[in-house]
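Let us begin with a simple case.
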Amino acid sequence: MCIRDRGAGSPAALAAAPAATAMLTIPGLTNTMVSVHAAALAASLDVTPDLTVLAPVNEAFTAVPPATLDPLLADTPRLTALLTHHVIAGRLAPGELAGTHTTLDGGQVTIEGAGEVFTISADQTLLGAADATVICGNLPTLNATVYVVDQVLTPPA
């Protein structure tokens, strides 16, 4: 499970905090939040209203080879584009998640599925080896809805 039953990281605590602040308390999003802070995006995520965030779980970042990840983390403009590609304007409920959505970097992400099973095709992921899966979702924060994904997405080339 990607959220706690009570206390920090619980549904009640998430709903009372803005997006970046809330995601700091979700187990498994440490690497995402380190990247968000490295790109100086936390404040923006906390104040922008009505967002949907596709947040990669820690294992998504650790699966990326250092030769690919390290230069990306060191290049703030590229890192910013990558991270904003994980954010969609508007709060998407599970019934609205499937479809093609414009991301904050100006790209598009296509999500397939219904109910509680959603995927993003491998060609939209940084590694390109397998489809990304939403492993936990519909987590409301004060200004966003968060869906945790098992891969890092990538903007179109």
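The second case is a distinct protein. As before, the sequence precedes its structure tokens.
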Amino acid sequence: MTTPETKRDEDAVRRYVESLALVLTQIGMQRMAARVFAALMTTDEGQLTAAELADSLSVSPAAISGAVRYLEQVGMVTKVREPGERRDHYRLYDDLWYATFLKRDRFLIMWRDAATEGIEALGPDSPSGKRLAEMKDFLGFVLKEINGLYDRWHQQREKSS
């Protein structure tokens, strides 16, 4: 069904939401979180209330609650309240990909530091210590490289604006 306001086929959009959610699930995201994220990505506003999400995905508000909590924790959505409204809205970040990967930086640092601790506990010359040392070195490399990647991304976005 095509709506006049959006000039898009809402049935096709619903199928796409499920298709995108399936891809996100296959790469490790929780299923309901993937569906909520896909629903938010396909709205022109980039935000919906829990009730709107539940309605569009034909699920309970409780299912939405758990999904948005996860998405908030991993830095993919934020909770906002519109002036004069009592309901929370869940919104995608304006610079979603940058914000999400910046949060992943903290995870990478924690992971690298945990590997460093393990090397000390296991001994740097043991097979397991060597595996952890390689993990620590790789994560350290990624952390150094990712800052340049962020800079190049912002430069590219400025050029295309």
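The mean pLDDT is 88. DSSP finds six helices and five strands in the chain.
Keep these points in mind for the review questions at the end of the chapter.
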